[in-house]
Amino acid sequence: MAAATLLQQYIPDLTPQRLETLLTENRNEGNIPELSRKLTRSECAQILGVSINSVNRYIKNGRLKAVHISPRLLRIDPESVKDLLTNGIPEDEVIIPKCCRKAGDQ
Fold it and tell me: Is residue 11 part of a domain?
């Protein structure tokens, strides 16, 4: 598995079998919680397992749909959160922290 090879520089004891086991154990089986009301940025970040800055970025690039209640207050459409959980983020939009980048990467 090429992914395990790429990740080994960050997690030296990772084997292809271990990666496959971890992915299987943590797979999203479509059991997305029922969301009936609009969400705050904090709630959305917690559900998605990302930072509030990432939620803001997803709103800005259209991945999440938000309703502005006032200039600084907004709520996020739960359907767009479900779509993001189901479809994920394209690989080219994933931001890798500086500490985890290879030399020469930006």
Answer: no
